[in-house]
Amino acid sequence: MYMLGQICRFAVGVLEKGKSPPLAMRDALAVAMKLFHVEFDPSQNWAMKLKDNALQAAGLIFIAHPTLMVKSEADGLVSSTISVEAPAKLKIRCLGNLLELLKSEEDRLLVKQKDGDEEVKEKQMLASSGIRVSAAVALQTQNGEGDSVSLASGLIQRYWDRVLKLATDVPIKGENTREDAQETVMAVRQRAFELMEAVLRAGLVAPWTAVPHMVALSTDP
Q1: Which tens digits make up the pLDDT trace of 5-38?
Q2: pTM attached to this predicted model
Q3: SS3 at position 141
Q4: Reduced to 3 DSSP states, what percent helix, strand and coil does the chain have, rounded to the nearest 5?
Q5: Where in this chain does the record put each Sister chromatid cohesion C-terminal domain (predicted)?
């Protein structure tokens, strides 16, 4: 699972050499989701680790092909692992996947902006030298990068309420009072807060939607 996710994320060109690149990515996602949904005994640590690795691979595939994340199967996967009822390990992984997706989209935009600035400067230099510059040609896109802003914003808005709930989630009184359980809850809330910070900084949601939860966090002992 780890290698599959890494290939899809960083060596997508290997999969895109075939006749149907999106199909190859969908097949990779199908493998990850199939392993995630395998029935197992919750008490088995290796089985939970398998789910975690499958979810990690799915997150890397979503970064490589963000459009796959809008599919109903992918939506069900994310919704089930970002809910309050999900195991803490899976909640942390899912929040991390969303955070990495935002960072990846932000990096893509910065690269495109830099390339655009360099292209403009180059054309200005050629024009000042008396060299005729041809009309601008649309840049080739890869992995759905042209949909970055609207797609990332739409996905975050879809799961925003769930993220806010995880950021302020506390164990029910009388349950999960062990120290290790408390630390696990805090780890989930910390990751949710990191995602909130990234989303608000990028301006993907209305900031006032997070005000009540930020106030609650500021008064939390």
Answers
A1: 666 666 666 666 655 555 677 888 888 888 888 8
A2: 0.75
A3: coil
A4: 75, 0, 25
A5: 152-221
Q: Per-residue pLDDT averaged across 209-221, rounded?
A: 83
Neighbours of 60 (CB within 10 A): 23
Q: Contact, 4 vs 21, CB < 8 A?
A: no
Could you tell me if residue 221 is inside a domain?
A: no
Residue 163 token pair = 């993220």
Q: Burial level of 130, CB count in 10 A (0-12/13-18/19+)?
A: exposed
Query: Does residue 186 sit within a domain?
Result: yes
Residue recorded with tokens 């807060």: 193
In a domain, residue 219? The reply is: no
Identify whether 32 is part of a domain.
yes
| Nearest CA-CA partner of 81 in 106, 103, 104, 56 | 56
Domain count, the chain: 1
Alpha-helix runs per DSSP H in 129-206: 148-167, 179-202
Domain that holds residue 152: 2-214
Q: Residue count of the chain, please give it.
A: 221
Q: Is 173 helix (H, G, I), strand (E, B) or coil?
A: coil
Are 110 and 118 within 8 A, CB to CB?
Answer: no
Predicted confidence (pLDDT) at residue 209 exceeds the cutoff of 70 = yes
